[in-house]
User: Fold these one by one.
Assistant:
Number 1:
Amino acid sequence: MKKTLGIILSGIIFFPFLLLLGLSVGKDWRFPDVLPGEWTLDHWSELFQLQGDLTQSLLLSLGISLLVATLSTVIGFITSKYIAYHPKKKTLLALAYFPYVLAPIIYAAVLYFYFIVLGLSGNFFGVVIGQMIIAYPFAVIIFVGYWNKRMQAMEQLVYTLGGTPWQAYQKVLFPVSKGILMVCFFQTFLISWFEYGLTMLIGVGKIQTLTLKVFHYVNEANIYHAALASCLLFLPPWILILINKRIVFRTES
Amino acid sequence: MLSVSHLHKSFEQEQVLKDLSLELGTRQMLSILGRSGSGKTTFLRIIAGLEQPDQGDIFWHEQRMNEVPPHQRNIVYLYQEALLFPHLTVFENIAFGLRLRKVPKSEADDRVRQMIQDLELHGQQDKMPHQLSGGQRQRVSFGRALIVNPLLLLLDEPFGNLDVETRKRMQDFLKRIAETYKITAIFVTHDLKEAILMGDRIGYMRKGSLYLYEDVREFVEDARTEAANEIAFWEEVARK
């Protein structure tokens, strides 16, 4: 009974993924056929053409998400420390929640004027900065609870042993905090990777990330390309999970 | 020689240090007894450069230290907890200060091996901090500090987390190692016996003021230290 239930549940969970995979290698799949009329790797082979739309979007998405995740994690880690030890910690932390309270898309729309003035509308760095509006405060919120008296004492110990503030980060704070840094990197990567509204608004449709591409294909009823783009969309997070599973899902031994 | 004059420090409305002055010769260990909240830790943090005084001067010989950042003072501040770096082995924890100073690897490694021997930590060098006992961790912490030849060692209740037996062993150990490495140190504690045992000189801190004594007798006779009361208590226990 348990086994049957397990199979049914697994089927429900994995069916959409299998369907996407099937669609990405299918052709002429018409109702009421149970299977596609033709199996082909044509859609996937497009990925190996560097000038192809999907390849460009995949690389663009990877570039944006890696940059957003790296910057948010590093800057969030450093600034959250100052916030955590600041006498006005609560006020500063409230600011980190601001983009979420206002809804990120509305917040970005309010700030859009500045993006235009600074020439950041419709370009790569504009989208990176736009996504950091939500990813960076998220990183601060993750890290702020991490700093405590013990971490502060450890940092100060490095100073009295002769270490500069940079050495304290390099030799102790970063290595000791590897686990939470990886978790934050992973989470901010996901925020950026699946981001649609902000990217659409600030990128004004010129920055075609993979997520935007999926919606684009869905809108034009191009189910095979939409499926392929979706497969690509969930591939990097899965790879990241596999790489980080020991850290992300670590249990205390 | 450490010279501190007219040190004042307040946090908001609370005055933590009041006109504190002190002179401490090289190779001396001053133990300071005081209750929680008497200002002992703030005093040590100011000497280490981790806090700035509101008023007053700190000199090491002729050099004014007030503006020297903590990493350039060569004054090591040790906490109640050993605070070993959890990602480094015992060997690398001890070598930490030498690596920061970019001492050539072979020389650094030789010094660490010698220190491990002095710390009586043979066979422990490849262990991670969580594999050590409380006393061993504290020894590594001392080794990590001593290996950089600090001008001054500041010990903030270093044995506070240890059980009675280990504490006794560590007190003996610190006395021995202080002798070997000829260290100058300020040892802060709220344990009367420990204060008497550890210091070449002894002081008592109360409400931000430091009282220094010529010898143990003068310390015991001062009613503020309550040493006489404690001695009387134990004599009373012994009579029963």
Number 2:
Amino acid sequence: MNAFLKILSFIGLLLTMFPPILIFMGKIDLDTTKLLMTIGMIAWFSSAPFWINKKE
Amino acid sequence: MPSTLFKKVIQETNEYERTPVPAKSLKSSNSFLGMYAGEHTAGTEFVIGPLFVAHGVAAGDLILGLLIGNLLAVLSWGLITAPIAAQKRLTLYYQLERIVGKRLVIGYNLINALMFCFLAGSMIAVSATAVGILFGLQMPTLTDWMPRTSGWIITVVVMGAVITLVAIQGYSYVARFANLMAPWMILIFVGAGLIGLSQLGVNSWDSLVSISNEVIWTGIPLEGMSKFTIWHIIFFAWFCNMAMHIGMSDLTILRYARSWKYGFLSFAGMFIGHFFAWIASGILYAVFLQANSSSSAFAPGEIAFQTAGIAGAVCVIVAGWTTANPTIYRAGLALQGIFPKTATWKITALVGGITSLAACFPALVMKLLDFVALYGLLLMPMGAVIFADFYFAKRFDFQSEQALNNKKSFSIPSFIAWILTLIICLGLNQFYGLEIFFLGLPGWFIAVALFVGFSKIYYPSAKLKMA
């Protein structure tokens, strides 16, 4: 479960990082960029809270 | 993780409040690297970058100014604050108390708490500009000092109440939330900057250079704004955290460092937050100005929403929140030092109330650069006193830790150094037109000289030997 959550968080960060690169390269439009970043945000916030503070 | 170290400091305040941090409690370099990167990529960055654009900074001046100013800030942490922290390993407050006396520390705490309230207030206002999008709030403009609408007041008061309630729950919840935010927020800053560049038509190095110069940092200030030069950028980047480095506030954090060299790890905060994030937020503002040329609104929430969509607006809300919350907590701690018998939650509630009230006034956001400079300037002389006490007591033959050694609760040399420095700085500002951003440097030397001079008069070393 923990591994799945971490993968989901990682996907969230990728969806935050790559759309801006793709729009900068002219591969996608602004609306798609915003949508993908919103999905990335949801993925990050729905998974990271369950593992990121676990050590503490 | 960004705020783990701060959390540790907060939780262990009682443990090592009046004793040096023992070797077993020292922290690794990773803790400091994360803390500096997280703490300096925050809500204020959404305001500072756009304000540079509004003040008409030229692109070359911005880049060079930030490189030099941030380097000077890192050197200040590394060469001035950290060596004292690593040798003494005491909190700022206790070290001050030993030098300036308990009563003067109360005055210091009071000003510190008030400044923290205003800073937190500005962050609540920043968050409100994003929350307000949902309700179609009329946003404040660059020249606004007073709230425009009752909707604005209601929004910031409700947000202030929620943030205060969370702060009352204690620091650990806030720290966990900040840990969660940090990696995502840094990526949003960088990503939004890239989106902004694409929106402005940048697709090659040549276009980056020309658009930077002609569209983003044009060198021409917006109407009603003063002109910023490279000197403004250098001194602002250097002194925006003046209270923390040469003001010695970070003694409390850096006393946990295994080596004095950890002070240089502040480069993570300076060159991620105070370089890339300021540049990125400036680009976002330029995009906003291009799309809304007739708008004079200055609303970080709207600016980020326009470029990065919902993720951008959410980033502004939580960036403001995660900055406001520990700041409220710190203000509460400073006040707790004055009223030790009052319950923590009551102090935090009071601080939250003052903060929410302050947040109603957009002037705190619009004048954030001036406020940050003033905040550092007000507290800096006490840092200069600690520096002079540490390095010059033997060399200039006066007593180190004079309040402790003479059982005084009020050190006259420290008081004179503090007040007279501020009066002289005010004079330099009023009569010689030296802007507030530049006062920190002469002010620090003045404070050191005054403290050394008056300490030699009031507490010469011979007096201690005779006693």
